[in-house]
Amino acid sequence: MTTVCLTFDFDAVALWVSTFKSTSPTPVSRGEFGANVGLPRVLKLLTEKKIKASFFVPAHTAASFPSQTRRIAEEGHEIALHGYCHETPVGLSRDQEADLLDRSIAKLRNVLGTDYTPKGYRSPSWDLTENSVELLVERGLLYDSSMMADDFRPYRARMGDRVDEEAFRPGTSSPLIEIPVAWELDDFPYFTFLNKPLYSGLRNPDDVFQCWKSEFDYCHAHVPGGVFTLTMHPQIIGRGPRIRLLERLIGQMQKQTGVAFCTMAEVAQRVSAQLDGK
Ligand SMILES: [Zn+2]
């Protein structure tokens, strides 16, 4: 069986404030588009296709767009952690990183209710520190989705790796399940246009459909029990032709036998039990 996880990083304005250091009206408006135009289109499509997805939500987004954030949860989707204001943890001290995680959970609880309990985390920069895994385990999280040591098979994240110019010496496995991501399966590099050469984006959605479909076909044919994870952003995938691309891709995947869509929390629970031999 192949599991498909549709994941959406609901970065909204936080991406522009933090990652791109842009708080002038036009970049901010790109974040607003995500919250007010892209997100409703994504949610409508998920409802039509009867799919539950995982949304990674910075605390800044939840505080800025509380009704949109609550709507995601009310429609049965998972809400997981994605930084305080979409900052990278890299370079933070252990205490700073712990503080931001705790403040993020508290701010999400202000919007989602005191019983909100995150199951997962995705680093806004898709990078972690030597403390991240331990801090996530301490807070009861089941999974992370930021690393790339496999393509379609979740694995246990490690603590205590040693990496230097002499050698790479892996540390010990943690209880945290890593559900890997890939730039090839992220809408950001394909479509984002910035005034920087790294993001020249604006690709034809038909080309991206072919890229994603051939990745899925390989997973479904060659990786038994594989987990096919797409990373998308409402402010990017939410434009009309791109939503159509996602609709077509979902249709193609749903036509195949042995394909199930579920949230990352569901995948993490299942994989954790499998790896424990239960
Ligand atoms: Zn993000």
Describe the structure.
It is a single chain. The protein is α/β, with parallel strands linked by helices. Helix content is 46%, strand content 16%. It contains eleven helices and eleven strands. Strands 1, 2, 3, 10 and 11 form a five-stranded parallel beta sheet that branches. A hairpin with a 4-residue loop joins β7 (162-163) and β8. α2 (25-49) packs parallel to α10. The longest helix is centred in the N-terminal third of the chain and has 25 residues, at 25-49. It starts with a strand and ends with a helix. The model has no long low-confidence stretch (mean pLDDT 96). The structure holds zinc ion (ZN). The site of zinc ion (ZN) has 6 residues, from loops.
Q: Report the span from N to C terminus.
A: 18 Å
Strand-residue proportion: 15-25%
The distinct bound ligands, ions and cofactors come out as: zinc ion
Principal-axis shape = globular
The total of beta strands comes to 11
Biggest beta-sheet profile? 5 strands, parallel
Low-confidence segments, ≥5 residues, pLDDT <50? none
Order of helices and strands: EHHEHHEHEHEEEEEHHEHHEH
Structural class assignment: alpha/beta
SSE layout:
Elements lengths: L1 E8 L4 H6 L5 H25 L4 E4 L1 H6 L1 H9 L3 E4 L12 H19 L7 E2 L10 H7 L4 E2 L10 E5 L2 E2 L4 E2 L2 E7 L8 H5 L13 H18 L4 E6 L1 H4 L2 H16 L3 E3 L2 H12 L3
Parallel strand pairs: 1-2, 1-10, 1-11, 2-3, 4-5, 5-9
Antiparallel strand pairs: 6-9, 7-8
Helix pairs in contact: 2-10, 8-10
Keywords:
alpha/beta, binds zinc ion, 278 residues, 5-stranded parallel β-sheet
